[in-house]
Specification:
Strand order of the largest sheet: 5-6-7-3-8-9
CATH class of the domain at 2-66 and 136-176 and 183-195: Alpha Beta
CATH superfamily of the domain at 2-66 and 136-176 and 183-195: P-loop containing nucleotide triphosphate hydrolases
Largest sheet: 6 strands, mixed
Number of helices: 9
CATH architecture of the domain at 2-66 and 136-176 and 183-195: 3-Layer(aba) Sandwich
Strand content: 25-35%
CATH topology of the domain at 2-66 and 136-176 and 183-195: Rossmann fold
Helix content: 25-40%
Shape: globular
Number of strands: 9
């Protein structure tokens, strides 16, 4: 669904051009659930925006199937004065239902909470593909959990799983390590515009401090990253 080879991207920072992606190589296949992680400035958003055609590479190749992109600013997607007008018809209703906003159909989008606006933008990005429609080849979400409570994050985990099961590759740029441990099967870690780690979620999120889950930090056991895994280890220890 995405293939990058030697990808270089420069961005204009006002008084100079800065290399953001520096010969990046990456392949993401159909049905994968990938957490794209790294410190601020590592190139996560630039990679997703380039995949969506919003930035032009200066070198290298980037091949992408059809893509739906949710950027960090939900306001970019909100142009109407009523939620129902942002997503009209049966497809819009299905999209609102999928993100838990069917009750807000008559509300002004700007009166929604930050998390609700984020979910509405997600519904707009995926409208027509939420219930039974053909999903895009690549679904790219940039920091989608800002302002979301735990229950809504669980809903998003379920939605990501559904999209992947229907054949979409889902790539989520996130700093939320705990959320990544719940949805991702693979973690790609960027640093200074290149891939510095790429592997199974349990391996990457238990292999360091900054990008380790709380469970991984406390128990310090290889591959134990989620609360469920940690609880299972503790129960087994008590039995022994």
């Amino acid at each position: 669904m995405l293939r990058a080879k030697g990808l270089w991207v420069e961005l204009d920072r006002g008084d100079e051009l800065r290399d953001v992606l520096k010969g990046l190589d990456l392949v993401i296949d159909r049905g994968e659930r990938v957490a794209l992680m790294g410190r601020n400035g590592a190139g996560k958003s630039t990679l997703l925006r380039t995949a969506a055609g919003l930035h032009e590479p200066v070198a290298g190749k980037l091949e992408v199937d059809s893509i739906a992109l949710l950027t960090q600013n939900p306001g970019d997607y909100l142009v109407r004065e009523r939620v129902g007008d942002e997503l009209p018809g049966e497809e819009g209703t299905a999209a609102l239902r999928a993100v838990g906003l069917e009750h807000a159909v008559d509300a002004d989008p700007r009166d929604l909470s930050g998390g609700e606006r984020q979910r509405l933008a997600l519904a707009i990005a995926l409208a027509g593909r939420m219930e039974g429609g053909e999903p895009p080849g690549l679904v790219a979400l940039d920091e989608p959990t800002r302002g979301m409570d735990h229950a809504r994050k669980d809903d998003l985990v379920a939605l990501i799983g559904d999209l992947a099961a229907r054949g979409a590759a889902v790539v989520v740029a996130t700093h939320d390590v705990e959320f990544a441990s719940q949805f991702a099967e693979r973690v790609v870690l960027l640093g200074d515009g290149v891939v510095i780690a790429d592997g199974p979620m349990a391996e990457i999120l238990s292999g360091g401090w900054y990008f380790a889950t709380e469970v991984a930090r406390v128990l310090d056991l290889p591959g134990v990253v989620t609360p469920e895994q940690g609880a299972a280890v503790l129960v087994e220890g008590e039995r022994r």
